Amino acid sequence: MKPDAVLRGLVGEILARFERVGLTIIGLKLVKPTLEHAQAHYPVTDVQLSQMGNKTLSTYASLGLDPKREFGTEDSVAIGRMIHKWNSEFLSSGPVVACVLEGVHAVKKVRALAGKTMPIDAAPGTIRGDFSSISPAVSNLLKAPVHNLVHASDNENDPDEPQKEISHWFQAEELVQYVPVSNHASIKFDR
Ligand code: ADP
């Protein structure tokens, strides 16, 4: 959970949504990351910056916005680099809640619960859709990242991303393995 979620007092509400679908919390802590820690959390290769830049270019196209006016460039890597800076500064403004969730297709499920990156596009019922309606057009005027409450590991471009992010935020001994109660339930067939 990013600083906007913590400052708005939405930690319990957001965690409850993950628990409600049967995901198990195996790591959890409140931290104020350093700028260096936040910078290292967000990917920095040109390919990754370009992916973020391209995603932004397509959002801008769909909103009828001119990326050159907002960012001073149409270059996807340069746009990605600007967003990386804003993201790192925002995340390190802290506090954030780091959380490791375990469960069936947990990465996919958490991203579905989070909703689309841009709160204006995120469906009602999702975390981003229910608690924000911010648009990149407004955020970029303020030279800020889109405040969309949560980060959620992805595994589409890099299958190892979730594991890398877990190691970035947690020591192995901070993760607690246990069998959740629902897994103990035995199905009884009376007939
Ligand atoms: P997601 O968080 O859904 O995986 P990305 O990895 O594409 O999305 O982007 C990382 C974060 O960067 C987003 O959650 C959002 O806070 C911020 N961001 C992305 N695009 C923009 C943009 N055009 N303007 C401001 N912030 C952005």
Topology:
Blueprint: H1 3-7, H2 11-20, E1 24-31, H3 35-41, H4 46-63, H5 67-71, H6 76-92, E2 96-102, H7 106-114, H8 127-131, H9 136-141, H10 161-169, H11 181-184
Antiparallel strand pairs: 1-2
Helix pairs in contact: 3-6, 4-6
The site of adenosine-5'-diphosphate has 15 residues, from helix 4, helix 6 and helix 9.
Describe this structure in words.
The protein is mainly alpha-helical. The protein has eleven helices and two strands, in the order ααβααααβααααα. Helix 3 packs across helix 6 (76-92) and helix 4 (46-63) packs across helix 6. The chain binds adenosine-5'-diphosphate. Residues 52, 55-56, 59, 83, 87, 117, 136, 139-140, 145-146, 148, 151, 154 line the site of adenosine-5'-diphosphate. Adenosine-5'-diphosphate binds next to helix 4, helix 6 and helix 9.
Query: Which ligands are bound?
Result: adenosine-5'-diphosphate
What is the oligomeric state here?
single chain
Figure out the total of helices. 11
Helix share bin: 40-55%
- Widest sheet, order of strands: 1-2
Parts with pLDDT < 50 across at least 5 consecutive residues: none
Overall geometric form: globular
* Mean pLDDT rating: 93
Q: Say how many strands there are.
A: 2
Radius of gyration: 18 Å
Derived from helix and strand composition plus strand pairing, the structural class reads mainly alpha
Our estimate of the beta-strand percent is 5-15%
Profile the largest sheet: 2 strands, antiparallel
Helix and strand sequence: HHEHHHHEHHHHH
N-to-C terminal Cα separation, in Å? Answer: 47 Å
